[in-house]
Amino acid sequence: MGIPMQVVHGDEWQALCNVDGQQCRVSMALVGAQDAGTWLLVQQDTAREVLSAEGAKKITLALAGVAAALRGEADLTPYFRDLVSTPPRAPGQ
Q: Closest Cα to residue 46, out of 24, 79, 76, 23?
């Protein structure tokens, strides 16, 4: 499962990233050097994809929603507003 993290500083091979107030080193081999403030989707200490701030927020909320469901919370609407407000569509529509 990928986790959104924000670049603090780094180069084309590794970066120091911030997630939930903690910092960790991330391999940048797949995405190359990124500017400070850039959001990344990180899996197993490797940046897999560059994210927009909006994309990072959606993924972070979805992960919080999964954690809330595991805690037994019944109303998950706050975590998935983008899905709740969009009517379902059949494939190909």
A: 24
- Beta strand pairing call for 3-10 and 46-51: unpaired
Query: Of 64, 62, 37, whose CA–CA distance to 52 is shortest?
Result: 37
Helix (H) or strand (E) holding 46: strand 46-51
CATH number of the domain at 1-51, please? 2.30.30.140
Query: pTM to 2 decimals?
Result: 0.83
Domain boundaries of the chain, sorted by first residue: 1-51, 52-87
- Give the pLDDT of residue 86: 79
The string of DSSP letters for 6-22 reads EEEEE-SSEEEEEETTE
